[in-house]
Amino acid sequence: MDKVSIITTEDYSPYLLDSAVESHFQLLGLDSFLHPGLRVTLKPNLLMKRTPAEATTTHPEVVAAVGRALKKRGITDITLADSPGGLYTVGALTGIYKTCGMADMAQREGVQLNYDTGWQEITTQTQRVTKFNIINPVAQADLVINICKLKTHCMTGLSGGVKNLFGCVPGLQKPEFHYRFKNADEFSDMLIDLCETVKPAITFVDAVVSMEGDGPSSGNPIHTGLTLCAANPYALDVVLCRLIRMEEKQALTVKASFERKLALYYDDIELVGDSQKINSVANFRMPATKSVDFNTRLPNWMQSAANFITDRWLVPKPVIHRNQCIGCGKCAESCPAKTIALHKRKAYINYQNCIKCYCCHEMCPVKAIHVKRSKLLSS
Ligand code: SF4
Ligand code: SF4
User: Fold this and answer.
1) Where in the sequence is the domain holding 308, given as residue range(s)?
2) What is the per-residue pLDDT across 105-142, written as a single tens digit (0 to 9) for each?
3) How far is the CA of 250 from the centre of ligand 1 (A)?
4) Which Pfam families match (predicted)?
5) What is the pLDDT of residue 379?
6) Residue 310 carries which DSSP code?
7) Is the pLDDT of residue 143 over 70?
C-alpha cells in the first residue's frame, strides 16, 4: 500500500521544517533511497520571478531543510535545478534564483545552483511521447527529489507532484508541448509520461502557504500549515485533491494516472503522521476554468457537437487588462499558438488561434491577464 505522510508545519521556521522533514523520512522509510556519494538534484517550483511571500514558488526554507537532511546522511553533491517558464538562460535563472530567495539560501546552505542550460534527449517507452528533452542536472542525477508547491492550476486543475515536473523540460520547449497536446486531458496524460521518465524518488509538498484560485501564478496565498511527502507522486496528488476538496476528475493529471492504473484510490492509500489534518483545509477556491464540465455526462452522439459549442463559446478565455499591461512580452514569448502581438507596448490576443492553454495568464508578471468565464456561465 502506498503511503503519504502529512506533518503539521505552521510556518517556515528552520527548526519546524527540520523536524517535519525528519518525520517524513522516518514515517516513509526514505533512508533506504539515500547513501553518501549520490548526486542528488532538488527540483523545486520556480515558475517565475516571485518572492517567497507570493506563494507562486517553492519556499526556499523548505528546500534548505531537505538539503540539510541530505547532508546529515552524508550526501554533499546537491544541486537545485528547474527550468522556469520563459527563457532558460543563465541571465533568467540568475534573476529568478535571487527573487525567489534561492540564491541566499544556496549560499548559506552550500547547495549548488544550476547554471547549465543544456539538456539531454531521453528516449522513453511511455504511451504518448517517445522522447523528452530533459535539463542536464535532472537527466544526470542519481536521484531526483521533487519539491513542489501546492497550488490550483487553471489548465490542469491541480499543480502538485506530477505537474511540477514540467519544469524538467527546457525553456521554450514547454510551449511546444502545449501546442502538440492542445486538449487539456491529452496534455495531462503527456505529463504522466514525463513523470514516468523523470521518476522522482521522493516528492515533498510545500503546503505551509499554498495558492488557491487562479493558480499557478494569479491565485491567492492561503495558509494551510502542512508539509506532505511520498515516494509515489501519483498517490501524493490524490491526497492533495482530498486535502483541498477538489474532485479527482478535475485534477487532470490525477484523472490520467487513474486511467493508467498508476494511482491508487484515496481509500487505498495509507496516510501517516498527522493524518487527521486531511480535514483541516476548508473552502479552497477553485480556478475560474473549472466550471465547464457537463459534456462527459451527455450521450456519446451529442458529445462532438457539445465539445464544439463548449470550445467556441463556453471555455473561459484569457483577457488582457491593458491598463495593467506593461508591455514586457512574456505572454507572447510563452504563447504556443503565437497568437499574441504587441502594439505600442500593449498585448493583444487573436482569439481565432487561441488554444486556451492559459500559458499567457501563467507567465504575466503583473497579473494583467485574467481568465474570464462566458457570460452564459456567469451567475
Ligand atoms: S493566447 Fe494565451 S491561452 Fe491562448 S494560446 Fe496563447 S498562451 Fe494559450
Ligand atoms: S499582458 Fe502581461 S505578459 Fe503580456 S505584455 Fe502585458 S504585462 Fe507582459
Assistant:
1) 295-372
2) 999 999 999 999 999 999 998 999 999 999 999 999 99
3) 21
4) DUF362 (PF04015), Fer4_10 (PF13237)
5) 43
6) I
7) yes
Ligand 1 atom at minimum distance from 353 CA: 5
Three-state secondary structure call for residue 77 = strand
* 216 upstream amide cis, omega within 30 of 0: yes
| Nearest residue (CA) to ligand 2, atom 6 | 325
> What residues line ligand 2, using a CB cutoff of 6 Å?
320, 325-331, 347, 364, 366, 368-369
pLDDT digits (tens, 9 = 90+) for 359-378: 999 999 999 999 987 665 55
Claim to verify: residue 196 and residue 272 sit in the same structural domain? yes
Domain co-membership, 223 together with 331: no
Backbone dihedral region of 43: left (phi > 0), alpha (psi from -120 to 50 degrees) or beta?
Answer: beta
- Taking the centre of ligand 1 as the mean of its atom positions, its distance from the CA of residue 378, in whole angstroms, is 22
pLDDT class of 294 with cuts at 50, 70, 90: very low
Residue 78 CA to residue 136 CA, distance in Å, equals: 14
Write out pLDDT tens, residues 4-47: 999 999 999 999 999 999 999 999 999 999 999 999 999 999 99
DSSP assignment of 95-109: HHHHHTTHHHHHHHH
3-state secondary structure of 259: helix
Q: Are residues 275 and 300 in the same domain?
A: no
Distance 355 CA to ligand 2 centre (A): 18
Ligand at shortest distance from the CA of 350: 1
Q: What is the CATH number of the domain that holds 95?
A: 3.40.50
Q: Whose CA is nearest to atom 7 of ligand 1?
A: 335
Statement to judge: residues 257 and 307 lie in one domain? no
Q: How far is the CA of 182 from the centre of ligand 2 (A)?
A: 22
- Asked if residue 274 and residue 302 are part of one domain, the reply reads no
Q: Are 172 and 119 in contact (CB under 8 A)?
A: no
Same domain (yes/no): 45, 186:
yes
Give residues (CB < 6 A) around ligand 1: 318, 335-337, 339-340, 349, 354-360
Q: Are residues 331 and 263 in the same domain?
A: no
